[in-house]
Design a protein that fits this description.
- This protein has about 250 residues and is mainly α.
- About 70% of the residues lie in helices and about 0% in strands.
- The protein has a two-stranded antiparallel ribbon.
- A hairpin with a 6-residue loop joins strand 1 and strand 2.
Amino acid sequence: MLEYLEAFVAGLYSILPFSAQGQQSFLFMMIGMAIGFVVGILPGLGGATTLALMLPFIYNMDPTTAFAFLLGSNAVTATTGDITSVLFGVPGEGITAATIVDGHPMAKKGEAGRALGAALMSSLVGAIFGAFALALAIPLVSPLVLSIGSAEFFMLALLGITFVASLSGGNLAKGLIAGGLGLVLAMVGLDPIDSIPRFTLEPILGEEHALHLWDGIELVAVTVGLFAIPEIIDLAVKGGSIAHENQGKLGGVM
C-alpha cells in the first residue's frame, strides 16, 4: 500500500510546477488542455481521436512531459463535449450523450448558463474526487477487478437495462423496449471473442460496404441522428434561436 502511495506522490511531483522538470510538464499539460478543449468541442472527435492527433508531437519529448501533454489533451474532451450537448443537442463524444436529455431542454428554456455550470462543476468535482478515490482503491480492488469475467459483465448489462427501465417515466414496457433496441444496436460488429461479423448486413450492402459496420455503430453518429438532425430541421423551418424563452441570468451552478 505504501509503495502505491509513494508512486502516486512521485507522479504528482513530476507534473506539478515544484521543480524544473515539473514546470516543463505542467506547461505542456496546459497546452494539451487547450488543444483538447478545441478538439473536444467538435462533435464526433473524442479522447481517442485527440490522442491519435497528438502522437506525432511527442516523439522528441521525454516520457514524463509526453504523458502530461497527452493527459491534458485527453482529460478535457469529455468536459468540452458537454458544451455542444447543452447548446446544440449534439454530443461532443459518446459519454456526453446523456447530458442532452436534461441539458438541451434547459437551454431551450433560457437556462443554458445553469446547465453548463452544473455540467462543468460536476465534471470538475467528479474528476478530482474520482482520481484520488481510484488511486487509493487500486491496491484494494485490483484482485477483484482481475477476477471479473463474462458472467459479471452480463449482470452489469442487465443492471444497465434495469436502470433504463426505471428511468422511463413510469412506462416500464417502453423502457424495456428501448433497452432491448440498445442491445441490438450494440451487437452490430465483430464479436469481441470470436471476431465473427454480426448483423453487418453483408448480403445487402456487399462485402466492401459491410466493412464499415465491423467496428459497430458509433454512439455519436446515432445520437446526432436522433437529436441533432431533428433540431436542425426544426430551427430551419421555424427560425429563431434555440432558447424558446427569454434568457435568464448568465450565472449557473457555482
